[in-house]
């Protein structure tokens, strides 16, 4: 399902791209987003796992980009936050004797596959640097 996770991750990475030589604290990032720093640290952990950022602890600690913003596509960021977009399926098992019910989930899966391919193609054309330059 769709959530705000992509927007949160993109906000974090956009901030980091604006200060490429600095380690930004989770408190600073959280202040920009108006969220709790724990939420920021959770997303930073995912970015570290995907080798996009590095962190250091201590008084001057924080997080910074490991890669140039020009080398990170929004598609790569999207795929770090979601496997795919799914707009949902019925909570109940559809009636297998109904001409629509017996095929609805299969047809929704095809629709979602097409949506994901379109999203991936579009986001692959935009780098973090391109997005960051809008600010």
TrEMBL record:
GO cellular component, one term: cytosol
Protein origin, superkingdom: Bacteria
GO MF, one annotated term: DNA-binding transcription factor activity
Name this polypeptide is given: Transcriptional regulator
Pfam families for this protein: Rrf2
Residue ranges of coiled coil: none
